[in-house]
Design goal:
There is one protein chain. The protein is α/β, with parallel strands linked by helices. It folds into 3 domains: about 70 residues, Winged helix-like DNA-binding domain superfamily/Winged helix DNA-binding domain (Arc Repressor Mutant, subunit A); about 110 residues, Periplasmic binding protein-like II (D-Maltodextrin-Binding Protein, domain 2, 3-Layer(aba) Sandwich); about 100 residues, 3-Layer(aba) Sandwich (D-Maltodextrin-Binding Protein, domain 2). The N and C termini lie far apart (about 55 Å). About 30% of the residues are buried. Keywords: Activator, DNA-binding, Transcription, Transcription regulation. InterPro entries: LysR_HTH_N, LysR_subst-bd, WH-like_DNA-bd_sf, WH_DNA-bd_sf.
Length: about 300
């Protein structure tokens, strides 16, 4: 079994960047910390740090161990805060994974029901690829995952995918582009520079199929996993871009662009994915039972 005091010394050193800095923070001698980390490495049969010049850096194993240490000690700190606080001040941890295909403003609206509960909630959001987030969900390091697709069938996880929102797709362009393209939508997309979501986005295939059906062939000038980055390029006039219709007003006001058209033939859907063990978490229940939003 891991000696958690030694593991804490490892964590503190990794976060501080050196044994000397960690020793000052922990009010211990550098010799004590280095000795305890050496004992931890010997007991586990691994090297967590390696020497680089006069300093140290994490090994690949050390970097992996640090991700677990972050969760362990952040949870421990939250537990201590909860136990020390009065009953009215206690907050419950709610750990959410957000697929990078989900626009951040959409994520906020979907998570909002959890923030208005009578029981205080402390939310921890992590963003990443869906496959990685589902792995975290499977070992209960996350309570919920927001995604633009349901849980893939190849994942052997006992869980549920609850559809939270469905809406059409709108297209936007910088005002300079709008002035020079007079064709009606969607034919103005033909031969036009187009920015599209990355291949991991569920809406990407539906968008391309719709364009092919209409025999519209835009010039794909950029692919983006991050929707916010795609909008920034669109705002700069690099090309036309799309976004869920439900956030049209927000896109126009934030990026000073013009909506050139919309379609309900290409639908974006957003899901809350949870596992049985976390299904009764009050924040998960609140999100899954909130009125559905369809635009």
């Amino acid at each position: 079994m891991i000696n958690y005091k030694q593991f804490h010394y490892f964590w503190a050193t990794a976060k501080a960047g050196s044994i000397v800095k960690a020793s000052k923070q922990l009010h211990l001698t550098p010799q004590t910390i280095s000795g305890q980390i050496a004992i931890l490495e010997a007991s586990l049969g691994v090297s967590l740090f390696r020497k680089v010049g006069r300093g140290i850096e994490l090994t690949e194993t050390g970097e992996l161990a640090l991700t677990y240490a972050d969760d362990i000690f952040q949870t421990g700190n939250a537990l201590e805060e909860m136990l020390r606080a009065g009953s009215k001040e206690r907050s419950r941890l709610f750990r959410v994974g957000i697929s990078d295909a989900v626009p951040k403003s959409i994520a906020y609206h979907l998570l909002a029901p959890a923030m208005s509960l009578a029981e205080p909630i402390k939310i921890i959001c992590r963003e990443g690829k869906l496959e990685s987030l589902l792995g975290e969900l499977a070992i209960h390091r996350l309570d919920l995952v927001l995604s633009d697709r349901p849980m893939p069938s190849e994942f052997d996880i006992k869980g549920r995918s609850n559809a939270l929102m469905e809406c059409g797709l709108s297209f936007f362009a910088a005002n300079s582009f709008q002035a020079s393209n007079l064709a009606s939508f969607p034919h103005c997309l033909n031969n036009a520079p187009l920015l599209v979501p990355g291949e991991d986005s569920a809406v990407r295939k539906r968008l391309m199929l719709w364009l092919n059906t209409l025999r519209i062939q835009p010039q794909i000038v950029g692919e983006f996993d991050d929707s916010a980055l795609m909008r920034a390029f669109g705002q700069a006039g690099v090309g036309i871009f799309c976004a869920p219709s439900i956030i049209t007003d927000e896109v126009i006001s934030q990026h000073n662009v013009t909506k050139i058209g919309e379609t309900n033939e290409v639908v974006e859907r957003f899901y809350a994915i949870s596992v049985e063990r976390r299904a009764n978490h009050p924040a998960v229940v609140a999100i899954n039972t909130a009125p559905s939003k369809i635009s």
